[in-house]
Amino acid sequence: MTVTPSDTSTEALNQDAISAEAELDFAAAMGDDLDLAIPEEVPTADDPSSRAASRNDADGVGFTLDEFASLLSKYDYNFKPGDVVNGTVFALESKGAMIDIGAKTAAFMPVQEVSINRVEGLSDVLVPGEVREFFIMSEENEDGQLSLSIRRIEYQRAWERVRQLQKEDATIYSEVFATNRGGALVRVEGLRGFIPGSHISTRKAKEELVADFLPLKFLEVDEERNRLVLSHRRALVERKMNRLEVGEVVLGTVRGIKPYGAFIDIGGVSGLLHISEISHEHIETPHTVLNVNDQMKVMIIDLDAERGRISLSTKALEPEPGDMLTDPQKVFDKAEEMAARYKQMLLEQAEDNEPMGVTLD
């Protein structure tokens, strides 16, 4: 069949009519009153009046293009190692947690970085959906992913807290979780601390201290060397010192004898009876006068809270020089009387050392 030009025009008109009718049916179905009329004046793309209208529309938004660029820059994050950022936990996995910190790719926190303390799993610390601070550990990897840590934040804050406690000369209580040949191990604010054997003051064997809570004082706090050293003895001495005074007579028990003197237990803390403070007479070795487990009276002659030391004397209690060698019981019987004389002597010395008043004419 041959199609004439007039037939082609008629077919085209019919198609236009069908399209127009379809558009009206669509508008009716959408419930919109669509205005399909073509405006008499349609501005072209290069019409200056069209660009002016666009600028006017932008002005009506409420902020300038510079302000818009500034707003976008707030979301152009530049994450660096060492930064602390807020993030949202959105997935807990076997090897770590996925964290949304606003970067192009979700950040990852390994399970070993979840806490400074030992935990059974991520769910002990993290809850999906929670927002908290994270430490950025490294640059982005080849996949654009950052590594995060909570442990680093806790570590930094723990050292800050420990330094403050040391500055305040605070007494803390901590549980012994292990012992070794050198002493005992504890945790302070999540940090591992060490108590040297010489600073453990107890009648228990070291191995029996595990799970015991001990009062402790700080000896050394060094973050750079990761050294946290504490003293049980100092804490006990300080506590005892609060109830002791120089010139006081106390009952003690000999716990150890060294060439330079004897260690006397006076109610849970040790004081040193130096060889030079045993008697006015010369003594070759403390063993010639004292025995381990001897009970005796001693007088306090010095309290050094900073070093945790109590210095003792029986020499000051001797009625006559050498009585500790010939008749120690006489020394103990007269102890309180001799201590009173000692205190009076200290008082007179203090008065003599007071500066003289100056009178101005």
Automatic annotation (TrEMBL):
Stored PROSITE patterns: S1
Origin superkingdom: Bacteria
GO aspect biological process, one term: translation
One Gene Ontology MF term: mRNA binding
Keyword Ribonucleoprotein on entry: yes
Pfam families: S1
Matches recorded under InterPro entries: NA-bd_OB-fold, Ribos_protein_bS1-like, Ribosomal_protein_S1-like, S1_domain
Location of the S1 motif domain: 82-151, 169-233, 247-315
GO CC field: ribonucleoprotein complex; ribosome
Key words, A-Z: Repeat, Ribonucleoprotein, Ribosomal protein, RNA-binding
Family the entry assigns: Belongs to the bacterial ribosomal protein bS1 family.
Task of the protein: Binds mRNA.
Protein name per the record: 30S ribosomal protein S1
Organism per entry: Cyanobium usitatum str. Tous
